[in-house]
Structure to design on (385 residues):
C-alpha cells in the first residue's frame, strides 16, 4: 500500500529531480527548528507551538527549556486546553490526572489510579531542545534518529561568537516553501522598489539581475549545513522597467558606489541568510517554520557583531528605532504579502507543475533539488497520528 502523503500521490512520480521537496508540504523531518525566542518562555510558564503539524508545549524548568507533545497518551486530549502543573517539573492531564515529567515524559503519577503499571513505564513524546543566540530550537523527528549538531541545521555564521541577535516572529498564511523561494528569487527585487529602507540607507537596488549561472555556489559538505548561495555576481542589472522601449518604472539608483553589497542564500531545513541586509555590517537570518500545509511561523532576525554588552544594547535600540520599522515592516513584510498572495495558487499540488518559471528562476530549481538530495525525511500524515 502506498504510504500516505500530504500531496497528491499521482503527482509524486512526476517530480523525480525534486520529489522530496514537492512532497515536503509540511516540512522536512529530523531537523532543528526555531520554536520561539528565549524570552518568550519564562520560568514556570507554558507556551504552545505547532511545528510540522506536531502540537507541542514548552516550559522552562530550572532554567532549562523542555518540550513535550501536546497530546495525552491516555485518551488523546490536549494538555494545552487546561494546563495543570502542580510542581515545577511535572504536568498533569486535566482529564484523568496522568502526570508526566517534563524532562523525560515518563508517567510519574496517576491521581485516580496510583497503582497502575503505566506509572514509571509509559511516557509522552519529548523533544530535544537547545538554546542559541536568544532562540529556542526544537528537534522534530524520529525517536531513533541520531541527532545532528545544531550547527548543521543553521546557516554558517549564525552561531558565531560576539554577535547579537534581534528580531520577531509572525504567523504567515502561506506554505513554508514560498519563504525560502522568495529569499533567493533573482527577479523579485521589483517588489521592493518603493521600500522606505532603500531611501533611508541610500542604497541602489535594481529591479533584477541578468541570470548568471556561474554566480551560485552549492554547499553540500557532509559535516555541515547544506545550502545554496547566490553571490549576485551578475554584472548586468536592470534599473529601468520598460514597455515598448519607454521607461515606466525605475529601481532606486543612487549611483554605482551605492550598490548594496548583499548576497543571499537558502539553507536546510528552512532558513534564508542575507549578508548586508538591512545595511552593511548586519545579516538577516529568516526562518520559515512549517506550522501546517497552509501556514508557517516566520522568524525575522538580524545579527550584528557586538563585542560588549554596550554594543548589544546599542544594537537593540537601533533595531527598535530603525531596522524594525524599515527593514522588517517596510521591506520583509512586502515579501510576506507576496507569499500570502501566492498561497491560493500553491495550495493546489498541481500548481508546482503549472507555474510559469523562466530561465532567471534557476536559483529556485537549485534550491529545490538541493533539498531533495539532502532531505533527512519528509513529514507525512502518518507522523501526526
Ligand atoms: Fe489524559 Fe486521560 S486523557 S489522563
Ligand atoms: Fe524580498
Amino acid at each position: 500500500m502506498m504510504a500516505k502523503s500530504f500531496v497528491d500521490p499521482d503527482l509524486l512520480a512526476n517530480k523525480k529531480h525534486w520529489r522530496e521537496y514537492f512532497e515536503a508540504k509540511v516540512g522536512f523531518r529530523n531537523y532543528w527548528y526555531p520554536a520561539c525566542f528565549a524570552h518568550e518562555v519564562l520560568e514556570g510558564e507554558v507556551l504552545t507551538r505547532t511545528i510540522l503539524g506536531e502540537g507541542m508545549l514548552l516550559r522552562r524548568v530550572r532554567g532549562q527549556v523542555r518540550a513535550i507533545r501536546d497530546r495525552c497518551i491516555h485518551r488523546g486530549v490536549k494538555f494545552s486546553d487546561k494546563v495543570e502543573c502542580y510542581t515545577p517539573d511535572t504536568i498533569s492531564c486535566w482529564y484523568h490526572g496522568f502526570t508526566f515529567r517534563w524532562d523525560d515524559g515518563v508517567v510519574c503519577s496517576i491521581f485516580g489510579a496510583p497503582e497502575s503499571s503505566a506509572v514509571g513505564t509509559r511516557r509522552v513524546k519529548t523533544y530535544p531542545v537547545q538554546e542559541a543566540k536568544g532562540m529556542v530550537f526544537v528537534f522534530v523527528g524520529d525517536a531513533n534518529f541520531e541527532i545532528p549538531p545544531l550547527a548543521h541545521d543553521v546557516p554558517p555564521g549564525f552561531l558565531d561568537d560576539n554577535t547579537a541577535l534581534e528580531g520577531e516572529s509572525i504567523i504567515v498564511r502561506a506554505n513554508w516553501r514560498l519563504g525560502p523561494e522568495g529569499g533567493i528569487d533573482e527577479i523579485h527585487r521589483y517588489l521592493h522598489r518603493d521600500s522606505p529602507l532603500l531611501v533611508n540607507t541610500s542604497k541602489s537596488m535594481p529591479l533584477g539581475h541578468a541570470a548568471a549561472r556561474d554566480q551560485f555556489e552549492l554547499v553540500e559538505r557532509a559535516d555541515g549545513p547544506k545550502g545554496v548561495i547566490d553571490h549576485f555576481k551578475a554584472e548586468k542589472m536592470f534599473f529601468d522597467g520598460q514597455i515598448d522601449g519607454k521607461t515606466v518604472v525605475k529601481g532606486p539608483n543612487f549611483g554605482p558606489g551605492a550598490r548594496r553589497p548583499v548576497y543571499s542564500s537558502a539553507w536546510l531545513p528552512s532558513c534564508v541568510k542575507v549578508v548586508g541586509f538591512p545595511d552593511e555590517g548586519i545579516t538577516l537570518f529568516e526562518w520559515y517554520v512549517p506550522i501546517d500545509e497552509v501556514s508557517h511561523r516566520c522568524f525575522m532576525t538580524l545579527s550584528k557583531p557586538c563585542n560588549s554588552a554596550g554594543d548589544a544594547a546599542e544594537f537593540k535600540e537601533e533595531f527598535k528605532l530603525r531596522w524594525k520599522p524599515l527593514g522588517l515592516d517596510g521591506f520583509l513584510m512586502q515579501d510576506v504579502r507576496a507569499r500570502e498572495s501566492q498561497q491560493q495558487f500553491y495550495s493546489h499540488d498541481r500548481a508546482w507543475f503549472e507555474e510559469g518559471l523562466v530561465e532567471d528562476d534557476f536559483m529556485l530549481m537549485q534550491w529545490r533539488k538541493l533539498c531533495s538530495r539532502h532531505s533527512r525525511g519528509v513529514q507525512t500524515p502518518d507522523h501526526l497520528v
